[in-house]
Design a protein that fits this description.
Blueprint lengths: L14 E4 L5 H10 L28 E6 L2 E9 L10 E9 L8 H15 L4 E7 L3 H9 L3 E12 L2 E11 L1
Parallel strand pairs: 4-5
Antiparallel strand pairs: 1-2, 2-3, 3-4, 5-7, 6-7
The structure holds coenzyme A (COA).
Length: about 170
């Protein structure tokens, strides 16, 4: 008898929530394991590692994505400046998904949740900066309605090459 055809199971949706102080260790490990010159402008972290959260990086500014109760991604939503005149804007200042959870819609779910959260906090515009050579992230942002608003040509020198810094934004 022929084997019954098995279609792939649909990926479960990640559970997205605001980060908690107790997420420190999991986020710290995730952040280090996802480091790459495709998106990071800081050198590869070396021990002793800096804490993930500090007075400028507070849990309330992060959304985390869980699959099977494990954190597989995060996004950081920050005020671009402390100015009252700039308070209607939120900037994505960090987005990472664990290697083994990529390509399953976690990044997209985090961006959508961040847009919702930014709206809830009263923002009407969202911005971000992405390296010119980061094709996966640029494709994701474009498909979620972000457009290129500016380019700083050859802003970073990474891995022996000059790389553009691309500014993207959208109304929310
Ligand atoms: C960018 C990143 C967050 C995407 O996360 P992800 O969970 O794999 O993304 P999703 O599964 O939600 O994919 C959504 C879309 O992103 C784009 N995308 C994701 N991976 C891609 C790849 N390797 N190549 C091209 N496009 C890609 C596609 O448009 C995809 O839509 P599709 O599945 O309908 O084709 C992830 O690759 C990552 O953590 N990269 C390292 C950190 C980083 O670059 N952060 C951004 C800093 S600005």
């Amino acid at each position: 008898m022929p084997e019954p055809h098995q279609s792939p199971l649909p990926s479960p949706s990640p559970y997205i929530r605001i980060a908690l102080p107790d997420d420190e260790e999991e986020l710290s490990v995730l952040d280090r394991s996802t480091w790459s010159q495709l998106h990071a402008v800081m050198p590869k972290p070396q021990p002793p590692y800096r804490p993930f959260f500090d007075e400028r990086h507070v849990p309330d500014d992060y959304l985390v994505a869980e699959l099977d109760r494990r954190i597989v991604g995060y996004i950081r939503l920050a005020l671009p400046t402390p100015l009252a005149s700039n308070a209607h804007v939120r900037q994505i200042q960090g987005l990472a998904v664990a290697d083994e959870a990529r390509g399953r819609g976690v990044g997209r779910a985090l961006i959508r949740a961040a847009v919702e959260e930014a709206r809830r906090r009263g923002a009407r515009r969202m911005t971000l900066r992405v390296l010119g050579h980061n094709a996966p992230a640029r494709k994701l942002y474009e498909s979620e309605g972000f457009v290129v608003e500016g380019v700083l040509p050859e802003e970073f020198f990474l891995g022996g090459e000059y790389v553009d810094d691309v500014i993207m934004g959208r109304r929310i």
